[in-house]
Amino acid sequence: MSRLPPDGDATVIRFENVSKTYPNQTRPALSEMSLEIERGEFVFVIGSSGSGKSTFMRLILREERPSTGRVVVAGKDLNRLSNWKLPHHRRLIGTVFQDFRLLPNKTVYQNVAFALEVIGRPKGQIVKVVPEVLELVGLAGKEDRMPNELSGGEQQRVAVARAFVNRPMILIADEPTGNLDPETSVGIMKLLDRINRTGTTVVMVTHDQAIVNQMRKRVLELDQGNLVRDQARGVYGYVR
Amino acid sequence: MRVQYVLQEILQGLRRNLTMVIAVVVSTAVALVMLGSGLLMWQQTLHMQDYWYGKVEVSVFMCNQEDVGKYANCLTPVTAGEKQSILQALKGTPHVQTITPESQEQAYTRYQQLQSGSALSQDVTPQDMQDSYRIKLDSPDNAAVVEGAVAGMAGVQSVQDEQQLLKPLFTFIHIAEYTAVGVAVVMLVLAFLLIFNTVRLSAFSRRRETGIMRLVGASNFYIQMPFLLEGAVAGLSGGVVASVILVGVKAFFINHVVAPHLQSVQFIGWSPFAWIVPCLLAVGVLMAVLASAFTLRKYLRV
After folding, report:
1. ipTM of the assembly?
2. pTM: predicted TM-score of the whole model, two decimal places
3. Residues A157/A142, Cβ–Cβ less than 8 Å
4. Residues of B in contact with A86 (CB under 8 A)
5. Three-state DSSP state, A137
6. Looking at the DSSP assignment, which residues form a beta bridge with residue A19?
7. Are A101 and B5 an interchain contact pair (Cβ–Cβ within 8 Å)?
8. Would strands B58-62 and A11-20 be described as parallel, antiparallel, or unpaired?
9. Residues facing residue A72 across a β-bridge
10. CB atoms within 10 A of CB A83
11. Residue B1's pLDDT is what?
């Protein structure tokens, strides 16, 4: 089970009139965005390049701060989060990227264990938990392989395992199927769906029409920094 | 688990950047050798001042048979009567505290001790030495009174303010001391910059790992620790190398080579090393940690 937000409050992510303009830019990356995402939801974030999807993710991770408005994650206002509490915030969020971002000189096991080692988890716990999560993602038996010996799909599974090993509250996936063929993509989506069913909130940025149309989850569509669509059980294209 | 992880990371980091780490250690070592030398020379001057200024201040040398005809007041080798007059004059001089006579025989014995084994000492006789009065004053600043009292008296070959003899030596040492400290400062700045660059390089080459560490929620401390410690280890090594060099110079060069030939100079013992060595180590580590922290603030933010 994933971690509960404090006070049993069901909202894990809330944006309150958030705008973000990067320095030396005229057009805001995000403009007056307000939304709520509840615990256990599966949300797609779609939009063309420059629509603000990456900014949206970065604000949740607090890699950036909003120019105006508030971002509240797990009941905490990120504007008021002190720098030394930031690592703690990041531990609530697992991230998966399009380019996998594995450490090339470490084995599958070591890559996943790394996420636990660097936050100070004891060895006893690591030895128990890592094999469990590797089995969950379907990589049991491949602990000693190096990333360059794996297919794209397998590498992404390692990345998912690493993101999930600490049982985060939220899993953010930034175009996780971008480098994968359609068949492998389906496999990854099934995995993310399975993770979502354990109670983890999943927010996934994607260009993949087929997947969005098939899974029929909540869709947030961004266009030039504005939230133009927020539809439950949505599809990729919008019939205007 | 934590300690093991951090140690592994440090070793890996040092190995990866071995050439730069060596550069850091060498430049730190040179800087600290300069600093240590400056400190040792300072200690040496204090030591010598205590020793010398405490002993003889002004010497009144009296004529021997060699001086006859060469000096205005030396018509004959000094007579007992002349010696008495000189002594009386000295006793009446203000600021004079003690007057110690040294006979030709005493001077001869002392000379033999100092120059034992050298070829020259074989040809010297007591008659070549001079009678002298060694005068201690209440303050080194009043040396001129002795000159005024006895300079023109019969039998006085010369009046020598020992301090004047030593002044050039002390000046020389002070110049060397300031030069060493000046070079030390420049070298420390250089070492600081080298460490800055090394840590930056190290952090850059590990950006994949540190990027993931940040995302995964590793604390700042955990991420920066290996780099800080890398810098500290390099700085400490520089300090150790510098200390070994200075101890070696003292043990072999000073004690075995220079001191036997310069018996009149009292060299410092080992006691200053008790605080100079820790001082050098501390400066090495501190400078390294500061430089590393500075780099990390700039290039490895959370």
Report:
1. 0.82
2. 0.70
3. no
4. 302
5. coil
6. A68
7. no
8. unpaired
9. A14, A77
10. 10
11. 46
